[in-house]
Structures are given as structure tokens and as C-alpha cells.
Write the C-alpha cells for this entry.
Amino acid sequence: MAELAEQHIIAPYDSSWYHQGCALRREVFMDEQGVSLEDEFDGKDPDASHIVTVQDGDVVAVLRILCLPEHAKIGRFAVKKTLRQQGIGSRLFHTALSFIARKGQPNVMLEAQLASIGFYEHFGFEAYGAEYLDAGILHRAMKNY
């Protein structure tokens, strides 16, 4: 059987794609990184846009976007462990930035785990402020404006 193309899908809240994205978030953040259920699922999902990357019918990457008056905030960005370092995250992040631009919001911020800062710098984001702990993991805020 031929491999299906990678797709980026806007996953409406409570859709099947959204729930598959949540399963990946649990796998990455809770199982791999030890984040609590309460920290990972913070009640903001209903107000967010969710984008998933699908390969061969499976969700392999996910992120959410909160559109706030002052900026869009990207978060809950996860890629399946066995598929990292293959460009999937970069393609999803580019898709998210395009989605945000179409919404008319030029300002984007995120809270990056320290190990991921270099990834976001490739997209023109700059770290600001002090390091801080979020769910027991060191982070820094980053923005593109």
C-alpha cells in the first residue's frame, strides 16, 4: 500500500482529530515528561484552534493556538517520539504561523522548553525574560515581535 501524504488538519474542539491529538499530548507531555493531567489539560482547549499533522491516518504531531487581543499564543506542541528530527514539527509550525497570519494577527508568542529554544529561533522568535518552571520543566517566553 502506498504511503499517504502528510496532511495538516484544523481539528475542531471535541472532534475525532482533536481527541487523537489529545492522546498524543498525553503520550508526550504526561508519559514522557511527567506533566500532570491538570497542567496538560488546563481548560483552555475549547477556546483554542487545534492543528494536527496526519500521516497514514494517524496523528503524528499536534499544537494549539490561542488567539488573544495582543498576540496569538502557540502551545501544546508535540511530535510523536519515533518521528522527531524529520521535519514534521517544522512543517506543522510553519502551517500554524500561516494560519495565524490569515487571522490577521502578526504577533505570536510561546513558552518554550529550554531544549527547544533553537528550534523556534529558526523561525525568527527571540527569548525574553527569565527562565521559569512550568509543570516542573524549565521554560522561557519567546516572541516574534
Observations:
- The first strand starts at residue 7 and ends at 10.
- The chain has a mean pLDDT of 96.
- Residues 7-108 form a domain with the Aminopeptidase fold (CATH 3.40.630.30).
